[in-house]
Amino acid sequence: MVDISIRLRDELIAAAAGSADEVCGLLLGRGEHVERALPCRNVAATPATRFELDPAALLAAHRAARAGAPAVLGHYHSHPSGDASPSPRDAADAIPDGSLWLIVAGEAVTAWRAVEDGALHGRFVPVAMRDDGCGAGHEPPQGGDAPRAE
Questions:
Q1: Alpha helices in the chain, H assignment, sequence order
Q2: Do residues 40 and 54 lie in contact, with contact meaning Cβ atoms separated by under 8 Å?
Q3: So where are the chain's domains?
Q4: Which of 54, 91, 102, 145 is most buried by a 10 A CB count?
Q5: How confident is the model over 21-62, as pLDDT tens digits?
Q6: Sequence-separated (6 or more) residues with CB below 8 Å from residue 146
Q7: Are the beta carbons of 105 and 15 closer than 8 angstroms?
Q8: Is 106 exposed, middle or buried (0-12, 13-18, 19+ CB in 10 A)?
Q9: Per DSSP, which regions of the chain are E strands?
Q10: Would you say residue 141 has pLDDT above 80?
């Protein structure tokens, strides 16, 4: 289970809604707690259908973490015309390092870990999300789809 506020999930939904291209960024935090999302430039050759994090942003975030800033727990990206599940392309690009993947599509945000022999596409397992913000937390259904703030 990963702790991520509904407020932060809503911010990711809003960012994705504002772009026809896949948006992407880093998830920063400590342990299983996502403290913030750092938007990054999508440097993919075809950003409407793929994402590639700006390597300079990724390197800078890892350097900052070594200096005491929150760690890179994983990343997020959107599927503008798909669903909030990892695609076969995501699976082909994923390194099975246990990193967290948040995928945004429409009003949905789901959480996954990239692992060896995952249940989805042989690469991903679903991760439940719980609200770490004020108020009651929610246990989401399988795949990490979580309720949104009203």
A1: 6-17, 55-66, 88-93
A2: yes
A3: 2-132
A4: 102
A5: 999 999 999 999 999 999 999 999 999 999 999 999 999 999
A6: 6, 9, 109, 129, 131, 138, 140
A7: no
A8: middle
A9: 2-3, 24-30, 33-40, 71-78, 100-105, 108-118, 122-127, 129-130
A10: no
- Residue type at position 100: L
Place of tokens 């990193």: 99
Residue in this structure with the two tokens 């760690």, named with its chain if needed: 71
Enter the tokens of residue 126: 């679903």
The distance of Cα 101 from the centroid of its chain, to the nearest Å, equals: 4
Neighbours of 150 (CB within 10 A): 4
Kindly report the CATH number that applies to the domain delimited by 2-132: 3.40.140.10
